[in-house]
Amino acid sequence: MSAKHPVRDPSRADAVYAQLKRDISEFRWLPGDRFTEMEVCDRHQVSRTPVRQALFRLQQEGFVDVHFRSGWEVKPFDFETFDHLYDLRIVIETTAVQRLCQPDAHAVDLRVLAEQARIWMVDEHARCTDRACVAQWDEAFHMDLVQASGNPEMQRVHREITERIRSVRRLDFTLQDRIQATYVEHARILQAVLTQQADAVKALLTAHIQTSQSQVRNITLHQIQQARRLTAD
């Protein structure tokens, strides 16, 4: 094969992408840090092609920026955009649950919520304490609420928001009391949906998302400050 058409190695690009995303999400690389493609190549012992593929993917997702002649930069954390995404998330999710509480909700496929009830409406001793597991279940819970509403366009936009906030949203589960609170709040939301209490479920869901938003913001600021202190030392 001609050198002008190198073989694409998606497995290497995916591996570099996953590791870089972890480094950024876990603040091993801080907002504003600059680096070159060759530095990433040396660190991961791979060629420039998979590194470039990984970086362009991260650029599309809003994690990094490229600067002409001066390499790449970890994008500064944009709290304004973060708040806007959470505002939009509240609009979509509260609209979805209100649809589930309408008199004709029997026509909507509510079976997707049965599994969520089995996860969240459990006794305290049966609750999972693994933060990675709970983070995945939490994401699925909110996506299933939107899915059950039966609007594919709402699902599409909500999925895009979920992708964009995933790296910071998971920080909410670094504290065990937030895991326990999530179980309680999810159970109350499900109960309100199943009993078609439209006003109650809207209020419960809004408060739940806003509390998580505030916690994640505080944890993000704390972790960035802590990482900068460690770097300085």
List the topology elements.
Layout: H1 10-25, E1 34-35, H2 37-44, H3 48-60, E2 64-67, E3 71-74, H4 79-100, H5 112-120, H6 131-148, H7 152-169, H8 176-194, H9 198-232
Antiparallel strand pairs: 1-3, 2-3
Helix pairs in contact: 1-3, 2-3, 4-6, 4-7, 4-9, 5-6, 5-8, 6-7, 6-8, 8-9
What does this structure look like?
The structure is a single chain. By secondary structure, the chain is mostly helical. The protein folds into two domains: 10-76, Orthogonal Bundle (Arc Repressor Mutant, subunit A); 79-229, GntR ligand-binding domain-like (Four Helix Bundle (Hemerythrin (Met), subunit A), Up-down Bundle). It has nine helices and three strands; from the N terminus they run H-E-H-H-E-E-H-H-H-H-H-H. A three-stranded antiparallel β-sheet has the order 1-3-2. The chain is elongated and about 60 Å long. The termini are far apart. Mean pLDDT is 86; it is low at 1-8.
Q: Output mean pLDDT.
A: 86
Instruction: Kindly state the number of beta strands.
Output: 3
* Fraction of helical residues: 55-70%
The tally of domains stands at 2
Shape from CA axes? elongated
Elements, N to C (H/E): HEHHEEHHHHHH
Give a quick account of the main beta sheet: strands, pairing sense, barrel closure.
Answer: 3 strands, antiparallel
Q: How many whole angstroms does the radius of gyration measure?
A: 21 Å
CATH-derived topology of the largest domain: Four Helix Bundle (Hemerythrin (Met), subunit A)
Q: How much of the residues is beta strand, in percent?
A: under 5%
